[in-house]
């Protein structure tokens, strides 16, 4: 049985006062009905960890370097994220693939570094609007999944987030049939690669998940939760999404 996951990606948003939302979430969900994860910007990680101490809310980072240490100004390693007590890291978000030219191979190397450091890697994949309109979405997903997920991944340190690029921050979402089709494909691909253990890998949907569409998306087969951007910044928005996973 896969435990559902509500993961929030704050991107480059948030502030120390903004971490008050964690207190509000803790009050609303003293016992989380699913796993709850917040990924604030790196400078806020230690503060966020202080705020979640004693609660079931997990804290993760939004990126890591594939190397353990070295001359990589501005970067941080997976081991550093683990050392402060964070448990997850997002890798291969489309905004990073786009802005920093991250390739599938680089994403896989980051995911591998994360897993080696004891973190759970949330590997993001998803097609562009042009790829969707050209009828290439499933091929793109297959290729990204193959190239971005390390071969020796174990189910408990791997989460896949399907995030169609055209749905991120736009208010547009795919049809339920399109989401279900991609999630079924991902499960099938993972099964052929990892065998029975693929049943334990959680598959998230991400892209304009809001309180009013969460329940419909979560009712789909093989959707084990969501990676949420904008609606994870405020407890009023994120809490009903968590509740929809109960
Ligand atoms: C994201 O940033 O991963 C995301 C899904 O954003 P939003 O929910 O705002 O579309």
Automatic annotation (TrEMBL):
Protein residues bound to substrate: 9-11, 169, 208, 229-230
Role of this protein: Involved in the gluconeogenesis. Catalyzes stereospecifically the conversion of dihydroxyacetone phosphate (DHAP) to D-glyceraldehyde-3-phosphate (G3P).
Organism: Roseobacter sinensis
Chief location category: cytoplasm
EC number of the protein: 5.3.1.1
The UniProt record lists the keyword Cytoplasm: yes
Name of this chain's protein: Triosephosphate isomerase
Residues forming the catalytic site: 93, 163
Pathway this chain belongs to: Carbohydrate degradation; glycolysis; D-glyceraldehyde 3-phosphate from glycerone phosphate: step 1/1; Carbohydrate biosynthesis; gluconeogenesis; Carbohydrate metabolism; erythritol degradation
Location of the protein in the cell: Cytoplasm
Self-association state and partner proteins as the record states: Homodimer.
GO MF entry, a single one: triose-phosphate isomerase activity
């Amino acid at each position: 049985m896969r435990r559902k996951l509500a993961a929030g990606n704050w991107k480059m948003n948030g502030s120390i006062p903004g971490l008050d939302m964690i207190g509000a979430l803790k009050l609303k969900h003293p016992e989380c009905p699913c796993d709850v994860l917040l990924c604030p910007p790196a400078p806020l990680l230690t503060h966020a960890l202080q705020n979640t101490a004693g609660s079931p809310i997990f804290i993760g980072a939004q990126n890591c370097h594939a190397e353990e240490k070295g001359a990589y100004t501005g970067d941080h390693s997976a081991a550093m994220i683990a050392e402060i007590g964070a448990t997850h890291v997002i890798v291969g978000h489309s905004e990073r693939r786009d802005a920093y030219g991250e390739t599938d191979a680089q994403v896989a190397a980051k995911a591998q570094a994360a897993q080696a450091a004891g973190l759970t890697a949330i590997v993001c994949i998803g097609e562009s609007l042009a790829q969707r309109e050209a009828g290439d979405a499933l091929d793109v997903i297959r290729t990204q999944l193959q190239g971005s997920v390390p071969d020796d991944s174990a189910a408990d340190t791997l989460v896949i987030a399907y995030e169609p690029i055209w749905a991120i921050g736009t208010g547009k979402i795919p049809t339920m049939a399109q989401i279900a089709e991609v999630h079924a494909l991902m499960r099938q691909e993972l099964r052929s690669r990892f065998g029975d253990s693929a049943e334990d890998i959680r598959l998230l949907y991400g892209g304009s998940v809001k309180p009013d569409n969460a329940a419909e998306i979560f009712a789909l087969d093989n959707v084990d939760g969501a990676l949420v951007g904008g609606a994870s910044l405020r407890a009023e928005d994120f809490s009903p999404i968590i509740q929809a996973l109960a």
